[in-house]
User: Fold this.
Amino acid sequence: YKYVLGLTKAPEIRLSGLEERINTANSEALIHKLRMAAITVLGNREQELPYRTSSDEIALVNVGGYSTDSVFVETVKKYAPVKCYQLTYEMNDSLMQAMKHELSMHKRVIVSVTDQDLKPYLHFFSSLSISQPAVFVFFTPFTVMEQLQIPLSVASAVVLGHSAENDVQTQVGNVLFAKGIADGRLSVSVGTLYSP
Assistant:
């Protein structure tokens, strides 16, 4: 068949204008549609989600680089006041204890994960015990979730965004308050916690 189809000869690829031929409006729209379809709500055990619009302040902990979830934060701020916390791997024990104490003062906690290497933060999560509902939001590939199996086992809900693109962050923020749709499904198991 390769002879009949002419596949024995390498086709000549015109390099000029290649980027414009690949990055069309249709391909961008398809990529956006795929990102939106991949957003998944997992383990909403206590029916914590969707949040109601409220005047109660939400504690939002970013695990990753500064402002990597800024679009998400701004979206959540449309529906409720937010107090932002930045978890860094350089934090000493006293700073971590102070953050844990402040988190305990909030009725709702969101943990926004944008870093793919969570080993530096495991000490914080291993000793984290908050009595209020905590929702974990991952703007990372699903494999990152496996690093936090113990904290996720007690999470009220988990939202998997798969990437930190601005449109994903906006949609996930809207999903938390029932202003957006998340109908994604897992294709493989995530550790022992979540399966398709």
